Amino acid sequence: MRIGVLCSGGDSPGMNAAIRGAVLRGVDVHGFEMIGFMDGWRGFHEGDTVPLDRAAVRGLSPLGGVVLGTSRVPPFPGGLLEGPEADLSAIRSGMEKYRIDAFLLIGGNGTQTVARMLANGGIPVIGLPKTIDNDLGGTDYTFGFDTAVSIAAEAIDRLRTTGESHRRCMVLEVMGRDAGWIALHAGMAGGAQVTLIPERPESIEQVCEWVLSVRDRGRSSLVVVAEGFTLQGGASVTRDGLDEMGRKRLGGIAESLAPLIEERTGIETRATVLGHVQRGGSPTAFDRVLATRTGMAAADAAHTGDWGTLAALKGDRIEMVPLDEAAGRLKTVPVARYDEVRLNFG
Ligand code: F6P
């Protein structure tokens, strides 16, 4: 069997380890031939491929980024077609051209939605879930999330010492377009006094009440905010331009919140946007292990013909779940998980 590997969406620490796991198991154990498409669907459209053998994945486990490159270039001419009737003929003729029998698709929500469309059209495909946002349904955690949380927690620790020294309120913006998992976990790890997530708009009055109560206890506030958070009645804060999928680029909520907090509380307030620092660099050991096991499980599933599935983490096991259970199902922070920290804000 000859398998094409393709990465799509934003990069996520652990993608290299996942490719390595899939190749070690797929090529060495099951005897597959494997190729990688460079920069996601761009490589597929333009014939930019690399052979994936044991030598190609040597030393990849600790490497950040992804050696194959990734992009949000759509798989179908004219963009991502919704509905059951997506025209897969271009994908099928590409598969003939590259002589591949199946795909391993490494990506988040958008990518796994594409994987499901291919599977529904009878194309053999297996999904490998990745996103630092951890917002993909069907799996407990996605690789990249643990690394992003560790970096954000370290940023909180660093901002806290300088903030306390100057009696300032420090606002840290982390990624999280539709789900506040990074903010929730980093805020908990770093003992943030306020955590703001997309799932739960709060009023500026409430945020300031928390900041003032921290000051009244003789401390300085550390506020962590996910980029997709909105104030009650407000809209998302966006930057200029759209991404390759035509979505607005988020970012800047911390810079919007800081002057509002300062004006209402009289406490000097500074904003820091962590940005792509939280996606870059070496994956944590947890993410390397999760990604490697995900890659290995995906190769095993290809060997047994378990197509149309996602290599998902369930507890401490990697299980193959139907793509229908994951694709298009955003995993947001449950109310109870937010409320357990919210009770202690301020
Ligand atoms: O989807 C993962 C993510 O990290 C989001 O949290 C964020 O909005 C987006 O990617 C940023 O993407 P880009 O790096 O293309 O600007």
Note down, in words, how this protein is organized:
With 346 residues, this protein is an alpha/beta fold. It folds into two domains: 2-143 and 283-325, Rossmann fold (3-Layer(aba) Sandwich); 145-279, Rossmann fold (3-Layer(aba) Sandwich), CATH 3.40.50. The protein is 37% helix and 19% strand. It is built from ten helices and 13 strands. The strands form three sheets. The protein has a seven-stranded mixed sheet with strand order 3-2-1-4-5-12-13, sandwiched between helices. The chain has a four-stranded parallel sheet with strand order 7-8-6-11, with helices on both faces. A two-stranded antiparallel sheet has the order 9-10. Strand 1 (2-7), helix 1 (15-29) and strand 2 form a beta-alpha-beta unit. Helix 1 (15-29) packs parallel to helix 9, helix 5 packs across helix 6 (181-190) and helix 7 (204-216) crosses helix 8. The longest helix has 22 residues, at 145-166. It is elongated and about 65 Å long. The relative contact order is 0.18. The model has no long low-confidence stretch (mean pLDDT 95). It binds 6-O-phosphono-beta-D-fructofuranose. 6-O-phosphono-beta-D-fructofuranose binds at residues 10, 108, 131-133, 175-177, 227, 243, 249-250, 279.
